[in-house]
Structure to design on (746 residues):
């Protein structure tokens, strides 16, 4: 709260962004602010009453409090809790002077783009406007006057997300169960016939019985169930309610068309003690996604596809309020054959990298993602459905990139810098670099941002693409700091780089590392075919016993706009390095459990030249550096040939059985190098990936060094006449449990 108060003193008008359920009303009621007259503006009677109750707890009897709603007209109190519908009427608004209130708090501030709110915003002149919302991002943010961030001058006072709120113990623990819905439940088609058919499946007897069975099996915390059910459409909600009631549940449908009185009465029946007219469940399509506070809810049932991570978290949040005699909330998510199933792990994890491997891991890790006592479980079929959705999704899709970019621009009020993507948790900008039609943030802005007017030459553009794709992920600091030197100096670049690395990073460059870095920056590292792609990317030229800036690159540095883009990109890469790649494993340039491509491994092992994956296969020995990396695809594809279907497998977190290439015997040179690696001074790093399905990232987990135990045997590969050797390896560092479970479990 101290952070919020500091922000309030520093700004005049801004939203307080907070995760739904963390006591938004309490935050605004902090007595330290010393306001004498306060207006709390809401869009529903029920919320006004709840807010008043919250303020009472903080202020006791120190100030007078009143309601201004359709039913109450207590205009002369110190603290007023008003509905927008009542206050925005001319005759009510003009009961007050423009400067009557010291502070005006707008709850669920994403509504403030509506005309009724604008009327109030334009009329009053308080010392402070404070907007509070858990959902500032809306679909119409790009329309003039509809952007909530813009209305509040793009001033973000404080932001707390689900993971942070759980860590701070601000919310009730939850137990989430991803449950298989019927096979026939899928995305609705476009034609009216398909929609009718879809409705029939959604409300079938079989589905009703399955939902009731699962709800009773997984249970709830407390004396009786007090549940919320979210559906896709109102006709589905009504039909399901009818069928649930016929089978003994007590349910009621609420929608936006119901009156405040009807909603309040329904909530009272749900939240109250057992009685003749008590409700077990309220079924809703949308009204419970925001702003209705029913702390007693102890079970949430989701019977709809996940439209977006934001909506998912909103609906989950309805059950996360703390309440007396409520230890936890049970969340049952019925997962059909939906295209957007991949959004579930994204929402639960809070991860915005849109990296397929990360998302798969979140599905298998379950409760590790969420701090505290909460747990996450998926049954086998729902897990497969999510994996299928992940496999089919294209996270470098232009539409997805543009949507995330627009959200961030709307939030900031200007074209985002690269660092803004990390700071505000939007999509990982590396997804832009991965997109083959883009390759750089500069190219994205040129193509899709009308306000962006900078234009580089073709060669300059290619250099920016090279740095974006090859270096900006921050997997090694050397090239990034070298580029930083070139922005300040023309000569003695390698010497200056050595000094910088030694003084700032306690990192020394041996001859192999020096040669590798120079080759990277003179286009000598790529394979012959790849050299043509970045032929312009020669940054250095030889000068006596050091290197200076090449003539071509030197000319580019004469363009201030190019230099500014380059500097931003380099600073972004250095920032990524410090966060993700600075904690090296022993004396390597690699970080345990980080992910690397074949090319990354060749570069960070300081090979003179890159090797194409086909030439590496499962492993390759580099004589110059005496490094012998092993690359394992743990899940083998069914359609590969028997001679390459090696049964590599872990037998424990620190033990691995790996098979040599086919056609090898105990006497083969590569087998002998493996078995005698320690004596011969050969370094054997291990890289493992779950599968090869991810066509975009193609990355392996680095699992440290391995040493052959001496247990090895030659055998004939099944269905072939080729021999191979099975070698047992010991890992210097046992694999961390979550990574291990993810790799070995199907």
């Amino acid at each position: 709260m101290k952070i919020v108060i500091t922000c309030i003193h520093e700004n005049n008008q801004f939203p307080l962004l907070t995760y739904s359920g963390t006591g938004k009303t309490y935050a605004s009621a902090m007595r330290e602010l010393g306001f004498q007259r306060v207006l709390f503006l809401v869009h529903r009677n029920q919320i006004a009453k709840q807010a008043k109750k919250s303020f009472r707890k903080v202020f006791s009897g120190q100030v007078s409090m009143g309601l201004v709603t359709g039913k109450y007209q207590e205009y002369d109190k110190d603290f007023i809790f008003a509905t927008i519908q009542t206050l925005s009427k001319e005759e009510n608004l003009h009961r007050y002077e423009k400067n009557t209130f010291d502070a005006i708090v707008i709850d669920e501030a994403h509504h403030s783009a509506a005309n009724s709110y604008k009327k109030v915003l334009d009329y009053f002149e308080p010392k402070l406007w404070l907007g509070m919302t858990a959902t500032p991002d809306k679909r119409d943010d790009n329309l003039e006057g509809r952007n909530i961030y813009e209305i509040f001058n793009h001033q973000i006072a404080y932001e707390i997300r689900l993971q942070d709120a759980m860590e701070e113990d601000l919310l009730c623990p939850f137990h989430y169960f991803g449950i298989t819905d019927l096979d026939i439940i899928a995305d609705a088609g476009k034609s009216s016939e398909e929609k009718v058919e879809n409705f029939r499946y959604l409300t079938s007897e079989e589905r009703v019985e399955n939902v009731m069975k699962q709800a009773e099996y997984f249970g709830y915390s407390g004396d009786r169930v007090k549940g919320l059910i979210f559906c896709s459409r109102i006709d589905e909600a009504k039909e399901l309610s009818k069928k649930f009631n016929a089978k003994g549940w007590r349910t009621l449908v609420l929608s936006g068309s119901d009156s405040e009185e009807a909603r309040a009465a329904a909530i009272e029946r749900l939240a109250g003690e057992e009685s003749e007219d008590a409700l077990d469940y309220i079924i809703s399509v949308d009204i419970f996604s925001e702003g209705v506070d029913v702390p007693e809810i102890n079970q949430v049932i989701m019977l709809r596809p996940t439209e977006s991570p934001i909506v998912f978290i909103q609906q989950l949040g309805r059950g996360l309020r703390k309440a007396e005699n409520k230890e936890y909330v049970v969340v049952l998510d019925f997962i059909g054959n939906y295209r957007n199933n991949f959004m579930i792990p994204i929402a639960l994890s809070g991860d915005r990298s849109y990296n397929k491997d990360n998302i798969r891991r979140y599905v298998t890790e379950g409760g590790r993602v969420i701090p505290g006592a909460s747990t996450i479980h998926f049954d086998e079929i729902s897990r497969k459905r999510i994996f299928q959705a992940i496999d089919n999704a294209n996270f470098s899709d232009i539409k997805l990139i543009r949507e995330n970019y627009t959200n961030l621009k709307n939030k900031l009020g200007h074209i985002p810098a690269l660092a803004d993507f990390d700071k505000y948790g939007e999509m990982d900008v590396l997804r832009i670099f991965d997109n083959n039609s883009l390759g750089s943030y500069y190219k994205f802005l040129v193509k899709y941002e009308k306000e962006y007017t900078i234009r580089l030459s073709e060669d300059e553009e290619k250099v920016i693409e090279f740095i974006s794709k090859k270096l900006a992920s921050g997997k090694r600091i050397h090239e990034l700091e070298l580029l930083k030197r070139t922005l300040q100096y023309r000569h003695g670049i390698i010497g200056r780089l050595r000094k910088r690395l030694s003084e700032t990073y306690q990192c020394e460059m041996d001859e192999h590392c020096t040669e590798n870095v120079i080759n990277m920056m003179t286009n000598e590292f790529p394979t012959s075919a790849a050299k043509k792609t970045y032929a312009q990317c020669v940054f250095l030229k030889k000068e006596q016993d050091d290197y200076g800036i090449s003539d071509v690159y030197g000319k580019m540095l004469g363009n201030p706009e190019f230099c500014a883009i380059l500097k931003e990109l380099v600073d972004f890469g250095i920032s990524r390095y410090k966060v993700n790649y600075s904690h090296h494993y022993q004396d390597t340039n690699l970080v345990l459990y980080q992910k690397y491509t074949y090319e990354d491994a060749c570069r960070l092992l300081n090979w003179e030249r890159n090797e194409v994956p086909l030439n590496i296969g499962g492993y390759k020995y580099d004589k110059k550096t005496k490094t012998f990396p092993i690359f394992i695809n743990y899940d083998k594809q069914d359609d590969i040939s028997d001679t390459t279907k090696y049964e590599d497998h872990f037998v424990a977190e620190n033990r691995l059985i790996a098979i040599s290439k086919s056609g090898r015997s105990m006497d083969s040179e590569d087998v002998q190098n493996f078995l005698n690696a320690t004596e011969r001074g050969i370094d054997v790093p291990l890289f493992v990936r779950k599968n090869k399905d991810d066509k975009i990232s193609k990355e392996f987990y680095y699992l440290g060094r391995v040493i052959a135990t001496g247990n090895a045997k030659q055998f004939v590969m099944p269905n072939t006449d080729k021999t191979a050797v099975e070698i047992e390896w010991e890992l210097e560092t046992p694999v961390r449990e979550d990574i291990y479970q993810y790799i070995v479990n199907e």
User: Anything to note?
Assistant: The first helix runs from residue 2 to 10.
